[in-house]
Design brief:
Elements (H helix, E strand, L loop, with lengths): L4 E5 L4 H12 L3 E6 L2 H15 L4 E5 L5 H14 L5 E3 L13 H25 L9 E3 L16 H11 L3 H4 L1 H8 L10 E3 L2 E3 L8 H14 L10
Parallel strand pairs: 1-2, 1-4, 2-3, 5-6
Antiparallel strand pairs: 6-7
Bound molecules: NADP nicotinamide-adenine-dinucleotide phosphate.
InterPro entries: NAD(P)-bd_dom_sf, SDR_fam
GO molecular function, one term: oxidoreductase activity
Keywords: Oxidoreductase
């Protein structure tokens, strides 16, 4: 990955941090896009020390704020000549304002469907451009994502994640594969698990829905005529 720039959101913990570590190990310039600067600094320090790659930088972003996203994007456009790999890793679960844990679980499931529609629509829009877009399921991973499981479910959940779930390092394997392997050069719009392409349910293949979600999302984030079009 020498000479390549890799941007990873949520690189301060879990799967994102392990992905950043491996990308740095492989010699990439790594941009850690994080909202928590304290844990981001600690993660960067650990990664630089372990890999010897100083070309790891932190940029602040809160993906829950459109202002922050736009400031971040403007900064990237100003400071970077190119991005070779963009990894949309940041995510959260069970912390939806006002939702019960059962609703919250449903909203997480729906949000992951939205990720699939987004990736498939983006892949279609970028067809022929040389830019590829793929998406993945990392498996069940023992990471910070489970920290919002409410009492009393949090204790059994902790035991389950420690005993049966994969480590964040294992969880990062498919992301790293998609970011760096020659096997997937030119492959776009596909779903991966355990470094292998997998089929999708009929619902996830619904391109009318994908288009609609794209268009609604564009309205929600307030895209205007002056924004870049894809
Ligand atoms: N763990 C699993 O079993 C599993 C299964 C399927 C999919 N995934 C997906 O894998 C991805 C990585 O999750 P993980 O398991 O590694 O969990 P994690 O350790 O909780 O990492 C999630 C990362 O996303 C960041 N993040 C959340 N909201 C953000 C925001 N508004 N702005 C900026 N960053 C934000 C978090 O930052 P903070 O530290 O500031 O909170 C954290 O760095 C997520 O998209 C998750 O949905 C995980």
């Amino acid at each position: 990955m020498e000479g390549k720039t890799v941007l990873i959101t949520g690189a301060n913990s879990g799967i994102g941090k392990e992905t950043a570590r491996e990308m740095a190990r492989q010699g990439a310039r790594v941009i850690m896009a994080c909202r928590n600067q304290e844990t981001a600094n600690a993660a960067r320090e650990e990664i630089v020390k372990e890999t010897g790659n100083n070309n790891v930088i932190i940029k602040k972003i809160d993906l829950g704020s459109q202002r922050s996203v736009r400031e971040f994007a403007a900064d990237i456009l100003k400071t970077e000549n190119k991005l070779d790999v963009l990894i949309h890793n940041a995510g959260m679960a069970l912390a939806f304002r006002g939702a019960t844990s059962e609703d919250a679980a449903y909203l997480y499931y729906v949000s992951k469907y939205a990720n699939i529609y987004f990736a498939r629509e983006l892949a279609q829009r970028l067809e022929g451009s040389g830019i590829t877009v793929n998406f993945l399921h990392p498996g069940m991973i023992d990471s910070g994502i489970w920290r919002n499981v409410p009492f009393p479910l949090n204790y059994p959940m902790l035991a389950v994640t420690k005993c049966f779930f994969k480590t964040p390092k294992q969880g990062a394997e498919t992301t790293i594969y998609l970011a760096s392997s020659k096997d997937v050069e030119g492959v776009s719009g596909k779903y991966f698990m355990d470094k292998k392409e997998h089929g999708l349910s009929a619902a996830a293949m619904d391109m009318d829905k994908a288009k609609k979600i794209w268009e609604e999302s564009a309205k929600i984030v307030g895209l205007t005529a002056s924004d870049p079009k894809i």
